[in-house]
Amino acid sequence: MSVLGYSTVRISGGILVAIAIIALVGPWMSPHDYASTDFDNLLLPPTLSGGHPFGSDSLGRDLFVRTMMGVRVTLLVAIVASIVSLVIGVAYGAVAGFVGGRTDAAMMRMVDTLYALPFIFFVILLLVAFERNFLLIFVAIGAVNWLDMARIVRGQTLSLREREFVEAARLTGVSTPRIIVRHIAPNLIGIVIVYLTLTIPQAILVESFLSYLGLGVQEPQTSLGALVNDGVNHMEGASWALLIPAGLLAVILMSFNFLGDGLRDFFDSRHTS
Amino acid sequence: MLRYTLLRILGAIPTLLLVIAIAFMMVHAAPGGPFDDDRALPPAIEENIKRYYHLDEPLPKQFLRYLSGLVRGDLGPSYVHVDYTVNELIADAFPRSLKIGALAMALALLAGLGAGTLAALRHDSWLDRVVMAISMTGISIPVFVFAPILVLLFAVKLNWLPAGWTSSSGVSRYLLPVVTLALPQIAYIARLTRASMIDVLQRDFIRTARAQGLGTMNVVWLHALKPAMLPVLSYMGPAIAAILTGSIVVEQIFGIGGLGHFFVNGALNRDYTVVLGIVVFYAALIVFLNLVVDILYGAIDPRVRYR
Question: In order of start, what are the domains of chain A with their CATH numbers?
Answer without folding.
Answer: 3-26+62-272 (1.10.3720.10)
